[in-house]
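Before a colleague's protein record goes any further, I have to sign it off. Alongside the sequence sits a line of tokens, each denoting a local backbone shape. I want your independent view on whether this chain really folds as the tokens say. Where you disagree with what is written, explain briefly why. This is what I was given:
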Amino acid sequence: MGILPDSGRKKEPDFVSEITELLLSYKDDLPFRTPDQLQISEILSRRDQRNTFYFNNVAQDWESIQKDVLDPAIYRKKILSYLPDSSSVIYDLGCGPGGLIPYLLTKSDQVIGVDSSPKMVEEAQVAFAGNSHVSLIHSQLENVASSATWSADAVVASMVLHHLSNPPAVIREIYKILKPGGVFCLVDLKKHNQEFMRDNFSDLWLGFDYSLLQDWLELSGFTITAHEEFDTDNVFKILIIQATKKED
């Protein structure tokens, strides 16, 4: 699979992401426009359904598919440095077939993987069958708080938000399931212009500017405590953000 080189030209506006962000910004401000709210919800729901269909189809080969564009090993070990040294419970949101879970088990007694794709959850269940330190939940990430069985010391969302129609809603859910003082580690692509990612990997967002993620996190109540940006061996750059839930 070819990756377009970074030509150094000014990036064109990411129209789809900008329209999605605009829809989200108005979704909760239309109290007297129920039909409009329903239409926006339907648009976002259809996007989520397409994503679930895609991930169900690639679940068995997802680990190898990712490596075609960006090897997860580049950032998985880095994630550990943004997590508490010892935790009772860590949630892995958008866990897929469970590739990150072995890393998280070095930091936590219990890891709970959550994914909206039933096939991804099935793959993870096979991989961790009989492991009492791993639990798996099939749930829409926008509703994860209602499915959470324990409060979390830490939550990781690694290369997940760019697949979601409503990232701010998921961030708010993460805030709910974290204990006071709990840590959220967000890993995602920095904003880019590689349009093939939409069709080939069901990306709804072409990465994110740090400032947008910062706004979403702070509006949800988080305090950003650390972040970094680093290059990979191709056109993509990766953002890692550590955010903390306020103490009571």
Notes: The mean pLDDT is 84.
